[in-house]
Amino acid sequence: MMNIIQNRNNNQLVIVLEGRLDISTAPDLDKVVNNDLDGVTELVFDLEKLDYISSVGLRVLLFAQKKMNRQGSMKVINVNEMVMDVFAAMGFADIMKIEQK
Amino acid sequence: MGEESFLRIPARLEGMDLILSFVSYLLDAHGCTPQARTQLRMAVEELYVNVTLYAYPSGEEGWAEIRGCVENGTATFRLIDGGVPFNPLEKEDPDIMLSGEERGIGGLGIYMVKTMVDEVEYEYRDGCNQLLLKRKI
């Protein structure tokens, strides 16, 4: 289960993810990244309530980063220790702006 | 070799909870650090997803089996399927720095497995794919 909450403020979009970003929920986020980023120049993922991320979830974040490289900036905030371990092990800390909780 | 437990189920994504419950059950019975538990569950989740998606031709219902034991503070799990022979470890590690549009950043899952456990090995034996994971707990 995952909740996706979007807060749009002009060119800024904050996406709050709650729950698990895995094979069963990643397609929902993929749709958001594909369809809802028009005109967004500042994208923020708030992961405070994200409990789990698997490789399909990482793939969607990577795609979002590549998209935002062309149209603005992206950062990931409130990352918990478990998710941070994954980001670090996978080298994501080198290519994304990540702020730990 | 310690006593090995196993679970065999139809290779469907809906079986994920069963597979992960098996992993936790075995680890918790032996006392396990939270980090090792999380990482072994993640590694098994990645491998099981691959089995459900790719091991069998579409439309064909296959099976998956997980076997595990804990000995001398090290957990060993084997994930087995009877599908098409495929060694995922031969895939090159992904280059996430590559820019560009391409969606198909392959190999992230298997790379994640490699980072989460101490040892991962592939073997095709008795007509089955076998992936072996070892990690200190």
Short summary:
The complex is a heterodimer of chains A (101) and B (137). By secondary structure, chain A is an alpha/beta fold.
User: Whole-Å distance between the termini of chain A?
Assistant: 22 Å
Task: Give the C-alpha Rg of chain B.
Answer: 15 Å
**Might you state the CATH topology name of chain A?**
Transcription Regulator spoIIAA
| SS class of chain A | alpha/beta
Assign the CATH topology of chain B. Answer: Heat Shock Protein 90
Molecular shape of chain A:
globular
Largest sheet of chain B: 5 strands, antiparallel
Residue share in β-strands of chain B:
25-35%
The assigned structural class of chain B equals alpha+beta
Instruction: Give the second-level CATH assignment, the architecture of chain B.
Output: 2-Layer Sandwich
Q: Helical proportion of chain B? A: 25-40%
What oligomeric state best describes the polypeptide chains here? heterodimer
Descriptive overview:
The complex is a heterodimer of chains A (101) and B (137). Chain A contains three helices and five strands; from the N terminus they run ββαβαβαβ. Chain A has 101 residues and is an alpha/beta fold. Chain A has one domain (2-100): STAS domain (Transcription Regulator spoIIAA, 2-Layer Sandwich), CATH 3.30.750. Chain A has a five-stranded mixed sheet with strand order 1-2-3-4-5. In chain A, helix 1 runs parallel beside helix 2 (55-71). The model of chain A has no long low-confidence stretch (mean pLDDT 94). Chain B has a single domain (5-136), classed as 2-Layer Sandwich (Heat Shock Protein 90), CATH 3.30.565. Chain B is of the alpha+beta class and 137 residues long. In chain B, strands 1-2-3-5-4 form a five-stranded antiparallel sheet, covered by helices on one side. The longest helix of chain B has 22 residues, at 34-55. Chain B has helices at residues 16-30, 34-55, 108-116; strands at residues 5-10, 63-71, 74-81, 119-125, 128-136. The A-B interface holds A 22-24, 54-56, 58-59, 62-63, 66, 69, 82, 85-86, 89-92, 94-95 and B 13, 35, 38-39, 42, 45-46, 49, 96-97, 99-101, 103, 105, 108-109, 111-112, 115-116.
